[in-house]
Amino acid sequence: MSEVIKAEIPEALAKKFRKKAMETYGYKKGAVKAALEDAMKRFISSSNVDWKVLRGCIRSESTSVELQHKAWRNMD
Prior knowledge:
Order of helices and strands: HHH
Oligomer: single chain
Low-confidence stretches: none
Shape: extended
Largest sheet: none
Number of helices: 3
Structural class: mainly alpha
Strand content: under 5%
Helix content: 55-70%
Radius of gyration: 17 Å
């Protein structure tokens, strides 16, 4: 059995996702669906991470917010 999930996302994000899905799963019908299923499974399984273990592991003069902004800039 399957379920339909609808969500509105920015057009630029959708285009990037579709492009990456087709590059990864092939330029065929079902590529976006396969990529979305994979992303959802990874999102669900990643919630079991114990983030407390990582506290103090990064040595940097930057604040956590500055590091986060830098990481997001590198994602584009």
